[in-house]
Each structure stands twice: as structure tokens, then as C-alpha cells.
Write a structure and sequence with these properties.
The chain is α+β, with helices and mostly antiparallel strands and 462 residues long. The chain is built from eleven helices and 21 strands. Strands 11, 14, 17, 18, 19, 20 and 21 form a seven-stranded mixed sheet that branches. The relative contact order is 0.10.
Length: 462
């Protein structure tokens, strides 16, 4: 996370962009307190974004004056996080009142760059009032790939989520000035542009002063449905806020079921021979080896034969993105909630490498050390629900992917083959697909390919 150089007469540190598409973060814990002397790069706070913990370092050396926010609060990117006196600076200026900031004229001193500064006032979690200032610098104006943060073809650089916000507000995102990293357009930029009207003119019922950048609140970014039925308050044992990983899970699942058109197809696989091979491999390797790496290998090979399932949907551009490499998501149950780390290039890994990768990402999720980047970019997901019991499931797609396979618990049962009855081992599989991209017949064919590979270990491991 790159920090911009702070002028000596400034004392405000705003929460920076913590990652692509991140517009808010939950404050987990403070690592400093008012009056502490901090050094540059010293960790000041621990925050959570999209299931990953992020340490926020101090960009300067100085003395902490005030901490904005309490543990558990949701902080909007662009809000003041810390105020403090920078070493060598004069006394820190007081925050201007919103009215004063709105009335302040644009600065145009000789030899000085003119900044389009504004005040953002919001209320988060119903109690925390945030007042912050941020500037659009020449770097923001130009972006990194083109003017106003656009690509060479004039298209704005923005994530699908931000494009969706613009579409819902009826805005042309290519006309929105980006202030994010490298000139990217953020959700804050979209709301700020909306407040000025589609053509840059002030919109009705909005403060029209040039210093007003936006009014951002948690409700603006995540508005609950209206007309909800009342909930009984009788017999409440404990109140648990939707925060942290659980909140992110709820948001992701809600988006998936409202966007992707789910259908599920199930089947049972005879893994009797594969179980023999698994035990042989485990004995040779001298370690425990589950069925999961074998299932992952079968899925990777099946995705090459059925590429429609190895894809993402870009709803903002109304495009289906068929991927070449298989970046396999692997659902991991942790004390903090379900996390889906991604094993990049899984189709290029051997059986043993896949097994080691699963152990590595699972450990990273459980101790919260996995980087946020490794929780993104998946092309297909596997959920090993059988680890905790259960056979079939109706797994929810990890949007914007288009397919997810749930492996149930293997069990012994009486089977028949070539007219012979025998006691074998069956593995239940449940495949959910996005019907907008994958037809039912193609989903069934994919599952059948996975089944055929698992039932023929010599072919699978060739």
C-alpha cells in the first residue's frame, strides 16, 4: 500500500485504497493510542477487508493526536482514520466544520497547485461521524494509462462492482473522474459524480459548492431491503452483529443468488479402485492423503474438456470470460467463517503439489495470514462438504465464477458391475452452475467426465 507524502502542515491520514474494489473496511483493533510517537511504516491499525486482515501502516513519523473510529466500526475508504502532529510540523490544524468547508473558496495562490478539495461527512454503524478531506492531485487527474484514469481506448478503469453502481445510478462510467490507485474509478467517485449530475452540472437537492466531493455513508453503499417484517425480541440469548468474515460471506452469497441463475446436478462415483490407489500413494509418501487432491486433478482435466465452466461473468460489460488457466478455489471452514482461497494454475500442479497447496492455503485462512490477493481470481471452486458429514448439497456459486462442485462424504454401499454385486465405496458429487452460461446438458457432461476419471485411476493419474 503506497502512501502519499503528507505536507508538513497537514495532520490527517485518510484510510487509503486497501485493494481493488474495496470501498470500506472493518476496524478490528488499534495498535497505537493517542499520545504515542509512531515511526514511518509502523502498524497503526488492523482492518478486515473481504475476509483478509490488512495492517495499516503510518506513512509518516509523528505523535498520534486522535484515533477516528472504534473497534468493530465500518470505515469508508477516504475517511480520516488518524490525526496527528507530523515531526517537524507546526501545530495541527483543526478540522473545518462542514459549513466552513463548503464556504471555503478554491485555493489559487501563486506558484501553488490548485487542489479540488472537499469534505466528506458520513455516519457509520449509526454512531461514528466521520469528517475527512481528500484531494484530486495531478496524478489522479491523469491516471496511469490515460487521461482521467481511462485506458487508451477511452474506457474507464473500474471493477465490475463499481460499474454496477454506476449503471444503477444511470451514469456513463467512462465520464467519471477516477481518484483511485492508478486513476481507477471507485464507488466514491461514482457517487461524487452523481451528486454533480450526468454532465458535471450540480444535481438537484445536492449541495452545489465546488468543495463538496460527496456524501458517503455505509447505508449508501449497502442499503438493507425496505419493508422488512418485524423480528420478535423475545428470549434473545445473544446479539451477534453481521461483521467481519460473516458479513462478507453474507454479502457475497446474497450477490451470487441474486445474480447467477443456479441449477444443480448430482451423481455418485464408484471410487473403490481410487481408494486403493489413495492408500498406496499415502504409504509411499509417508503422509496422510485425502481424496481431495484426486478430485481436484479430475476437475482440472475436466475443465480443459469443458471450458465453458472455467469462466467468469462480467455482468458490467455483459461478457462471458472463458479462462485458460485453472485457478481453483477451495472452500475452507475456519473459526471466523467460510473462506475460499485460490490455488493459481492448479492445472499445472501434480497430485502431491495440489495436496501441499491445499494444506498451505487452509493454514493461511485459519491463522488469518493469507493475503487478500489469494482470495480472488478463481475460475472454479470445490467445496469438500464431506469433511463434516453429509452427502449431497446445493452449493452456491462463488460469483463471478460459473460453477462449483461439492464433494460429499464417501461411504460403503452395495454396488453392481457387469452383473456382479460387491461392496464398494461411493463418493457423492453435487455440481451447481450458472444457467446463464452453462446449459444443463453441458453441466451433466462435465460431471460425467469427472466421474469417469475418478472411476479410472490409471487414466486419472496418467
Amino acid at each position: 500500500m503506497a502512501a502519499t507524502k503528507q505536507p508538513a502542515d497537514k495532520s490527517h491520514f485518510i484510510l487509503p485504497d486497501l485493494g481493488e474494489g474495496v470501498h470500506e473496511a472493518e476496524l478490528i483493533s488499534w495498535k497505537v493510542k493517542p499520545g504515542d510517537h509512531v515511526k514511518e511504516h509502523q502498524t497503526m491499525a488492523e482492518m478486515e477487508t473481504d475476509k483478509a486482515l490488512v495492517e495499516v501502516p503510518s506513512p509518516w513519523t509523528g505523535v498520534i493526536d486522535e484515533l477516528r473510529g472504534s473497534e468493530g466500526e465500518i470505515i469508508i475508504v477516504g475517511s480520516i482514520l488518524v490525526t496527528y502532529k507530523v515531526d517537524g510540523a507546526s501545530a495541527p490544524p483543526a478540522d473545518p466544520a462542514p459549513e466552513a468547508a463548503a464556504a471555503a473558496p478554491e485555493s489559487s495562490g501563486d506558484g501553488a497547485e490548485t487542489d479540488d478539495q472537499g469534505t466528506v461527512v458520513g455516519t457509520m454503524s449509526g454512531t461514528l461521524e466521520v469528517s475527512s478531506r481528500f484531494s484530486r492531485t495531478p496524478e489522479h487527474e491523469a491516471g496511469s494509462n490515460g487521461s482521467n484514469g481511462t485506458t487508451t481506448d477511452g474506457k474507464a478503469m473500474a471493477t465490475p462492482a463499481v460499474r454496477r453502481v454506476a449503471r444503477e445510478l444511470g451514469l456513463e462510467i467512462d465520464r467519471v473522474l477516477g481518484t483511485g490507485r492508478g486513476g481507477r474509478v471507485t464507488a466514491s467517485d461514482v457517487h461524487a459524480h452523481a451528486s454533480l449530475g450526468r454532465d458535471g452540472a450540480p444535481a438537484a437537492n445536492v449541495n452545489t459548492d465546488a468543495t463538496d466531493a460527496a456524501v458517503i455513508t455505509a447505508a449508501t453503499l449497502s442499503t438493507p431491503p425496505k419493508n422488512l417484517p418485524p423480528v420478535s425480541t423475545d428470549g434473545i440469548k445473544e446479539r451477534i452483529p453481521f461483521r467481519g468474515v460473516r458479513r462478507k460471506i453474507a454479502q457475497a452469497l446474497d450477490l451470487s443468488v441474486k445474480t447467477a441463475v443456479h441449477f444443480t446436478v448430482v451423481d455418485e462415483v464408484d471410487v473403490t479402485e481410487l481408494e486403493v490407489k489413495r492408500r498406496e500413494y499415502a504409504k509411499v509418501l509417508g503422509t496422510r492423503l485425502s481424496l481431495l487432491p484426486f478430485i481436484m486433478t479430475a476437475v482440472c482435466r475436466s475443465l480443459k474438456k469443458h471450458p465453458a465452466l472455467n469462466a467468469n461473468v462480467d455482468d458490467a460489460r455483459e461478457e462471458i470470460l472463458i479462462k485458460d488457466a485453472v485457478n481453483l478455489g477451495c472452500a475452507v471452514d475456519t473459526d471466523h467463517g467460510l473462506m475460499v482461497p485460490v490455488i493459481g494454475g492448479a492445472d499445472r500442479l501434480s497430485l502431491v503439489e495440489l495436496g501441499n497447496a491445499v494444506k498451505s492455503v487452509a493454514e493461511g485462512c485459519k491463522n488469518r495470514t493469507i493475503p487478500r490477493e489469494q482470495l480472488m481470481g478463481g475460475t472454479f471452486t470445490i467445496s469438500n462438504v464431506g469433511s463434516y458429514g453429509g452427502r449431497f448439497a446445493t452449493p452456491i456459486i462463488n460469483y463471478p465464477e460459473v460453477g462449483i462442485l461439492a464433494a460429499g462424504r464417501s461411504f460403503e454401499k452395495v454396488m453392481a458391475k457387469d452383473g456382479m454385486i460387491f461392496a464398494g465405496t461411493a463418493l457423492p458429487l453435487s455440481l451447481s452452475c450458472d444457467h446463464r452460461v452453462v446449459d444443463g446438458a453441458e453441466g451433466a457432461r462435465f460431471l460425467n467426465t469427472v466421474k469417469t476419471l475418478l472411476e479410472n485411476p490409471s487414466s486419472l493419474l496418467a
